[in-house]
Amino acid sequence: MFVYLDETEFGEGRFSGYACLITPCRIEQAVIDEALENLRNDPDRLDSVQTPMDDRTLQRSFFHAADDSKNAHSHLCRAISKHVKGDFRSHVFHTTKHSFSSKEDLYDLASKLAVVGLFSRTTELTFVFEQRGGLNVGALLTKWWPDLWFDLARSAYVSPFIVKYYPKVTFEVSDKLEPGLQVVDFMLWAAQKARMDARSQWFDRLPGWSKCKTTTEDGGWEGESIRMLEPEALDSRRYDVEHCKFDDPKFSEIGILWQFIANVQAVINKSYFLKDKARIDHFFTDIEYLYLQREAIHGVAHIKKMAACFIKLFDNVGVVQKETPPNDKTFWLAARKCMALVFYDGVDAWFHATRLADIRTQLIEQETNYLSMGVDDDSIVA
Predict the structure, then answer these.
(1) % of the chain surpassing 90 pLDDT
(2) Which among 62, 252, 315, 318 is least surrounded, fewest beta carbons within 10 Å?
(3) Is the dihedral of CA 97, 100, 101, 102 positive or negative?
């Protein structure tokens, strides 16, 4: 999937707006070319008010909503409706009601909010940002992705029933000529225009089978979303909250922990031998290390490496399939919840990680073969 991200300021600096457009395919130049050609041939371009703006748009050969005429808006909106399929989200912050330390911090939060649900949908992502003069996008990306993934991995403790792929991620920094950035720029402009002027119809003219507007109680944050992509069918889900029946007494016994450790290592071992590594190649060095170190004694840091790798593998290799027996689904979801706890701060999380490390050491000293399960079994398939 492709994720196009854009930012804007409006209301004389009182608002900062951020948006993302998620599409299954890259938005091609043909979308822009069609809209430009239709604008060039539009008889309404002869209007004295519109002509200078339209000539400027045609001369530069790209759309920029804040500088374009209603004619240009109309033709780009039609091209989007005809060719673009994706989900749009925008977030608007009232800058005077927040105490962000920098523009980068605000952009960091907004972009994370925009894409957080995306990791339940795909194993490969390309993020496309516009290069901004005052925004160090390269430094932001270096920090943004690891932090976001850490938050997602940790959330597996609270919501182990939510699919979380660990996608192969590519970052692109482009200029205003990038077709997808022109599209998301218009959509964000239309959303903020509707917020500032109730008479504006551009946001309503954008396609989508559902649209939503949200706001906080104090009015400090607001947002819009448009869904153009069909959601996953409920009957196609491999697992869900109904499989998180952790009230079984066995999940309260310390004996279940050695089973978690052994089976987490088995998933890592099996993944090491997968013939098709397309979904795991971008973190295969972690898998290889943990496989080769499966019988070596390590401490808490190693348990955290195991937990991170297992959570990355869980959906990428499909540990739980639709046909997996319900009790087995519960076991695997409980294992993911157990491993995710090590990422939290505090005494309880540290004690938990230490206990898992001790159990792993006991398995190596007493039952080494338990950590070699799956070495000769490549039944897990991507």
Answers:
(1) 49
(2) 252
(3) negative
